[in-house]
Amino acid sequence: MFEGLAEAVRYCHDGPNSPHPSEQGSWDTVVHRDITLTNIFLSSSQASDTHYSTIKLGDYDCAVPLSDLTTSRPIKTDLSREDPAYVPPEGPVARPKCDIFQIGLVMVCLSYGFVEPNDVRQEEAELSRARKYSNELHQSIRVCTKEKYGKRPSARILGTRIRAAKEKMEGEGRFPPYESLL
Predict the structure, then answer these.
(1) Residue 161 structural domain
(2) Sign (positive/negative) of CA torsion 21, 26, 31, 37?
């Protein structure tokens, strides 16, 4: 799920089938701004050769194309209200790495079984509670929830990091079966 969510956000930020940001062409980056547990949908296909669900990201009411920001300098009050529990440390702004912070909060909630991220804002103390998950998963979540905006990865880099960790653990025979659900 973590990998699929990173890919859905990468699509919003970079466009379809864009292997590198410089090849985006005319794609207008969309910042979702409301990545919450209630806005993530799972679907499956009978034709699929995998047992994993497909992640669908919904509710684009708070979403903002970056071109809107460059043409009309909106202020915070102009932006649609996002779920306050998922607002990143920099506030309710429209920047791609704000979506990454929200991905991290969603993954923290899924890892611990929380409905809202309010209880897990102190990530360092809380992440130690879910010891059944791998260090690789913990590290990927931690990098998403960094307080400083510039310390968070892009969706593309996050997806690459998740895939590399998954492949490494599978190759070493230590990919926990329950972690494949996340």
Answers:
(1) 2-181
(2) negative
C-alpha to C-alpha distance for 107 and 101, rounded to whole angstroms: 10
CB 28 within 8 A of CB 65: yes
Span 128-165, pLDDT tens digits: 555 567 788 888 999 999 999 999 999 999 999 999 88
Q: Please state the φ and ψ torsions of residue 31, each to the nearest 5 degrees.
A: -95, 120
DSSP-derived secondary structure for 57-83? E---TT-EEHHHHHHH---GGGSPPPP
The CATH number given to whatever domain includes residue 49 is 1.10.510.10
Q: What is the pTM of this model?
A: 0.83
Q: What is the count of structural domains for the chain?
A: 1
